[in-house]
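Entry 14: structure prediction run for Response regulatory domain-containing protein. Input pasted below.
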Amino acid sequence: MGEPMSDPLDPELLAAFLPEWDAAATALGTADAAATPRLLDHLRGMAGAFELRSLSGMLAAAEPLPEPFAPGALAGLAAALRAQAARIAGAGADVPPPEDAAAPPQAPRQCRVLLVDDSAMMRRLLRESLSAEPAFAVVGEAANGHAALERMAALQPDLTLLDIEMPELDGIGALRAWSLTGPGAVVVVSSAARPGTALAAEARRLGAAAVVGKPSGAFSPDLRDRQGGAILRAARRAAGLPSAGEAG
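Run finished. Output tokens:
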């Protein structure tokens, strides 16, 4: 267990500390994006107030924490914090955590995705297709190329799914601007730039990681059934994620 890091702790204070710590750490393991920062601040405050350097160190060692926070993303950290509190209770004093608990394993960071299409229906269908993969988190939407470039600059997405035929500024125009300063990767999802067409070749020349055709134009309620798998495969490759067969 290692040499104690503190003098023996007051048994009454320890008895009061442990249930609250256990409850907060348990909640952290399943917390959503809204609750996670509050719970982390509460745990840091408790560890500091009781001068438990081992727990403060574990929280510090886990940073930077994965964002956006998905439910269960911090389950490993939560379990390690609870286990360390149990060790402290058993020793009656602060003790060093095991070496493998100093930096608890974290869930992989989600790929942040921007959806760009002038059809609200298509954006919804793309969002639903991506929702099948916990590796992706949709962080924004845009309905034309100008708005897409603004969202890219503000959100810094890891991946953008981009339509070609849009008002104000089309996808090719947006790609030209993105190729100079834009963040992340781009996958074109368009009925106008199907693989093998001149538009598809131009999109690839400008840096698009892949081009996937829409199954039946801008209004495609059959998207998930007919092209959902192709979109997910292209998105995973563009984001540097393993294919579904290699995952896990």
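Notes: The mean pLDDT is 83. Will compare against the previous run tomorrow.
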